Amino acid sequence: RIKVKVPKFSDVGVVGELVGLDGPYGNVITNIRLKDLEKIGLGLNHTLTASLGRRRMTFPLKKTFSDVPVGKPLFYIDSKGFIALAINQGNAAAKTSLKEGSIVPVKLLK
Q: What average pLDDT does the segment 40-57 reach?
């Protein structure tokens, strides 16, 4: 069993990290849970900005993949309660070049 680190809170929001890739789909699983986002006033249907290395991406936190058009990115809550990045019918890991252990800060887009 892998021990998952606890995300940290900072002035930019919740700072977590990538804990796994859901292959072959390429979903990027973080160590951030919905309850962590709720502590800073975020939740379902909010738009989040993720800083992924030098790249900054913005996408909604949705309940299901079908809540966004095909080919569009989203955050969703995976079956274990973690926030994950996905692309509806696509591969988020390949698109973002993320690898396990990457730092994934998340904040609300203002």
A: 83
Indicate the SS3 state at residue 38.
helix
Smallest Cα–Cα separation from 66: which of 86, 37, 51?
Answer: 86
Six token digits for residue 27: 């979903």
Q: What tokens were used for 2?
A: 């892998």
Reported confidence tier of residue 53, pLDDT bands at 50, 70, 90: low
- Strand, coil or helix: what is 54? coil
Q: Check: pTM over 0.70? Answer yes or no.
A: yes
pLDDT digits (tens, 9 = 90+) for 23-46: 788 999 988 999 999 988 889 999
Rounded to 5°, the CA angle 44-49-51 comes to 135
Considering only CA atoms, which of 27, 63, 23, 61 is closest in space to residue 41?
A: 61
Closest CA to 22 of 100, 107, 103: 100
Instruction: Please state whether the peptide bond connecting residue 24 to the residue before it is cis, i.e. omega within 30 degrees of 0.
Output: yes
